[in-house]
Specification:
Elements: H1 2-28, H2 55-58, H3 60-82, H4 93-124, H5 129-139, H6 148-189
């Protein structure tokens, strides 16, 4: 049973590293799909203005917070590896603390990212795309209706929720296994 738990522990920790890196990459490119809206957000310009294009500027506070939170998640993930959570046979309080901190923050980040990505996607799809295409064609600019980064953010949020559940399962499994081992060793020592 110990071998299965240790294998699961390594897989989950590798998944944590991969998803943390993906979270940072998504945070860097979160506003990429809607970047071209910044050229059309000036309501004073009758030539370039597209209704709803101010969305690009409205999401910037969240975009900056997302990057900050992704960097914090990288630090929390690194702390799990510093305390050898990925390969310890027995967990110490530091392993529980770092894993709990990572799980709590990853859950918060996943919920925040999912809620904001869905809201921003809804607002993005309300933009006057006919007018946007007309203006971009006239000025020979890039036209895009892509919501790839917003959809990727939603998928990443769900993956982070699954990861948090797997990390918690690993903690419980490890704790149960450690208690059984301790009971077995104490029972054998008293004979």
């Amino acid at each position: 049973m110990q071998h299965k738990q240790l294998l699961f522990q390594r897989i989950v920790m590798a998944a944590a590293l991969v998803l943390t890196c993906l979270t940072f990459i998504v945070a860097l490119g979160f506003a990429t799909d809607i970047y071209n809206l910044n050229y059309h957000a000036d309501a004073g310009s009758t030539l370039l203005y597209v209704k709803g294009a101010e969305l690009y500027y409205q999401i910037q506070p969240f975009n900056q917070a997302l990057l900050r939170d992704a960097a914090i998640l990288v630090i929390l993930c690194a702390s799990m590896f510093v305390f050898l959570t990925h390969r310890r046979r027995l967990y110490y309080p530091s392993n529980y603390i770092t894993t709990a901190a990572y799980c709590g923050f990853a859950g918060y980040l996943a919920a925040t990212l999912l809620a904001n990505a869905l809201y921003i996607k809804q607002k993005f799809l309300q933009i006057d795309f006919a007018r946007l295409q007309e203006v971009t064609d006239m000025l020979n600019m890039r036209y895009s209706e892509s919501t790839f980064m917003l959809d990727a953010s939603c998928a990443l949020s769900i993956a982070l929720f699954v990861l948090v559940a797997c990390l918690l399962i690993n903690l419980i499994w490890k704790t149960v296994w450690m208690r059984k081992e301790k009971a077995t060793s104490e029972g054998g020592a008293s004979l």
